[in-house]
Design goal:
elongated, 4-stranded antiparallel β-sheet, alpha+beta, single chain, about 375 residues
Length: about 375
């Protein structure tokens, strides 16, 4: 049997793999191929862009309303010098502390469920958003409302999206109204915290002062009590005990934020111990008096009277500071119904669709050409 020397070996498919790395890419050939397909490269993306542009007209436009306002500002109060003159009582307002970033806190308040639920109920967003559950309505609301704080100017901007221009403006303005409501209900600023603190202490001291007065009156007057002349000693005792009470309150406030080894805590603890020692000495001198019961009642009455006077002054100062503090929200730009839509952006959307279609069509032709056997 003779062999056919002219028989050619069969080519393996891998020998003609268009993706073989050794063959490289002929850019001129690809460019020539794409040029031959220029009609499709033009018509397909143009058709996709046109259809996309037409589809945007089927989408109901969205309007965006914006309001800008200046949030309440933290200010140094006029009570600082007055508190410093009271010695140990100067630490009472320190426990309240000042807000480091009040603007961020006001943004968080407007993003709270408290505010969102009131917005949802006021504008009936459950039905508008076709939400079955309230958390779904909150999520939709958060997507349609953007609240931001300017890092440089400290202004808060509220942007609200809605299909109805009037609804968008009303929603943006309502966020400001809800923030006003919360700031009036919550003690946020330093002056508000001081006012709330002294208001509570003033009420408690007023009750205790009335009880001490009744106890003093029920004790009556006798010869021994008159000879004891407790007024001067009782007033000194009352002032000293008031300072001790204030120092103890300050020490408790410091221990909430600092350790016992902190210099401020140790210094305040030393002050409390010193005042307590003086009070013990003053008490020991008068406990053996024949009119000790009357003196004790008189001292308690003067102590509560001194506290009531101190708290009354600080309460009035706090109220004055609160009235002139940055507690009022100053609206710079009130949200008005927008005249132009914000979405959809038809030209940009159609341009993106055209670019994607052009890219996809070019890739399709390139891949199809590379797979074609040579």
């Amino acid at each position: 049997m003779t062999q056919n020397n002219n028989a050619q070996p069969q080519a393996h498919p891998a020998d003609h793999n268009p993706w073989n790395e050794d063959e490289g890419v002929d850019l001129l050939e690809l460019g020539s191929h794409l040029l031959n397909k220029w009609k499709l490269l033009v018509s397909v993306p143009l058709l996709v862009g046109t259809l996309t542009l037409g589809g945007t007209y089927l989408i109901k436009p969205t309007f965006t309303a914006q309001t800008i306002f200046l949030p309440p500002q933290q200010q140094q109060s006029s009570a600082a010098s007055a508190l410093a003159s009271l010695g140990a009582l100067a630490g009472l307002a320190g426990g309240a502390g000042s807000l480091k970033t009040p603007g961020d806190q006001y943004v968080s308040l407007m993003q709270s469920a408290n505010v969102e639920d009131r917005i949802i109920d006021r504008f009936k967003l459950m039905a508008l958003y076709e939400a079955k559950f309230r958390f779904e309505a909150r999520k939709e609301l958060e997507q349609n409302v953007r609240i931001s704080l300017g890092k440089k100017d400290g202004l808060i901007t509220v942007e609200a999206d809605a299909k109805d221009p009037q609804l968008a403006a009303d929603m943006a303005n309502q966020y400001v109204a809800e923030l006003r409501r919360l700031t009036s209900e919550l003690a946020l600023t330093e002056a508000q915290q001081r006012r709330a603190f002294f208001e509570t202490e003033l009420k408690n001291t007023k009750t205790k002062l009335a009880e001490a007065q009744q106890a003093l009156q029920s004790g009556g007057f006798n010869a021994g009590a008159i000879k004891a002349e407790p007024k001067a000693a009782a007033e000194n005792y009352a002032q000293l005990k008031a300072q001790l009470t204030a120092a103890e309150v300050r020490l408790q406030a410091l221990r909430r934020t600092r350790t016992d080894t902190a210099p401020e805590v140790q210094q305040q603890a030393s002050l409390v111990a010193a005042l307590h020692g003086q009070l013990v000495k003053l008490t020991t001198k008068t406990d053996d008096s024949p009119s000790a019961d009357y003196v004790s009642r008189y001292r308690e009455y003067k102590y509560q009277e001194a506290l009531f006077e101190l708290f009354s002054k600080q309460y009035e100062i706090a109220r004055l500071d609160e009235s002139r503090d940055g507690g009022s929200i100053q609206v710079i730009d009130v949200a008005t119904p927008p005249e132009l839509k914000s979405k959809p952006r038809r030209a940009i959307t159609a341009g993106i669709a055209w670019l994607l279609a052009l890219t996809a069509t070019s890739i399709f032709f390139i891949v199809n050409h590379r797979k074609r056997p040579t």
